[in-house]
Design goal:
Elements lengths: L4 H10 L5 H7 L17 H11 L4 E5 L7 E4 H17 L7 E5 L4 H12 L3 E5 L8 H15 L3 E4 L4 H10 L5 E4 H4 L5
Parallel strand pairs: 3-4, 3-5, 5-6
Antiparallel strand pairs: 1-2
């Protein structure tokens, strides 16, 4: 229900701090024999590929949610999902150097799609998703400017944001396709 950044800050100030047990549960155990860092990696893709070869089953990301307590994503599952996304984008005509906008929540799909766009040789353009249904027109106007500036040809989003995607496709000349993240490539975890 926050209407301004100040409202959001006030709500966060009122929120209860995490307990020590919550903090301990959220920490990822480091393996006894730590794996050295990929010192020769020059890009994010090279670093992830190195980890896929060296420690494919090591957890790279844990996404926390109240329902499950946490979703671990290994290097292997992240990479496999990214390759699926890269292939799906290539099938849709996305070429190296194209920009692909990502209007996604902080979920597994965001991470595999971001990496998949990079694997396709394209440029990811992350955009925050709409927060309030009553301000869709205002949101779409701001995001249209980002999409125009980036020259995005594709927008990857989620089912609940279909309405915004349709609005954006109608007002951004370069945007030729709006794709639901789950139809682009299914979750791998």
């Amino acid at each position: 229900s926050a209407e301004t950044p100040a409202d959001l800050v006030a709500a966060l100030d009122r929120a209860a701090p995490a307990s020590r047990d919550d903090v301990r549960r959220s920490q990822i155990a480091v393996p006894a024999a730590a794996t050295p860092a990929p010192v020769d990696a020059r890009t994010l893709l090279e670093a992830v590929q190195w980890h896929v070869r060296a420690t494919p089953d090591r957890v790279h990301i844990v996404l926390h949610d109240e329902a499950s307590g946490g979703l671990p994503i290994t290097y292997r599952s992240l990479w496999d999902g990214a390759l699926d996304v890269a292939a799906a984008l290539a099938e849709r005509g996305v070429a190296p150097g194209d920009t692909v906008a990502l209007m996604l929540r902080t979920e597994e799909g965001f991470f595999r799609t971001f990496l998949g766009v990079l694997a396709a040789g394209a440029v990811p353009v992350p955009m925050y998703p709409p927060l309030r249904a009553d301000r869709i027109a205002e949101y779409a106007h701001r995001q249209a400017g980002i999409l125009r500036n980036a020259g995005s040809r594709v927008l990857v989003t989620f089912a609940d944001a279909d309405r915004v995607g349709s609005i954006l496709r109608g007002v951004v000349e370069t945007l030729r396709e709006v794709i639901d993240v789950n139809r682009l490539a299914p979750a791998t975890v």
